[in-house]
Design a protein that fits this description.
Length: 151
């Protein structure tokens, strides 16, 4: 059942990307941007594993220079082995998991604001990138992904 759903979701995503390519050519830019954001929200709903109790979304900066696209994400408390970075078509997918220390049963917790659990961020890239030369760095809780543009 799960594998069938995944295949259907992947097929839907491919059809949606083809439709977006044709739709983007005739829509005014502000409407294109709105359409992309709505599509991103639906993607996160479709691909988010429903079994999660705790979901959080780290803050990111995505910008480009003449030669590269750069992502910086704040991931404090996330172990480097828990982070996954992938590029699919013109989307950057950053996944990971942060585990917080469990409090003992006899401890009284007055406030818990630090998010924990798994996260997935799907970010639309402004251009195609060279997958072979992607550089990923993680230092002091900040993930930096440098994506060279295709020549």
């Amino acid at each position: 059942m799960g594998r069938c759903f995944l295949l259907v979701a992947l097929e839907y995503r491919e059809r949606k990307q083809r439709a977006m390519a044709t739709k983007a050519s005739w829509l005014p830019f502000p409407v294109q941007r709105l359409s992309q954001e709505v599509d991103r929200l639906f993607k996160e709903l479709i691909y988010r594993p429903w079994a999660r109790v705790s979901v959080w979304s780290p803050q990111v900066d995505l910008y480009e220079t003449e030669t590269v696209v750069i992502l910086e994400a704040d991931l404090p408390g996330v172990e480097v082995q828990e982070i996954s970075v992938a590029v699919e078509h013109k989307e950057l997918v950053v996944q990971g998991k942060r585990v917080l220390e469990q409090k003992r049963a006899e401890d009284t917790v007055y406030r818990r604001e630090r998010p924990a659990g798994q996260f997935v961020r799907w970010l639309h890239l402004p251009t195609f990138v060279d997958r072979e030369r992607i550089r990923v760095e993680y230092y002091d809780g900040v993930l930096r992904v440098t994506l060279p543009k295709l020549q």
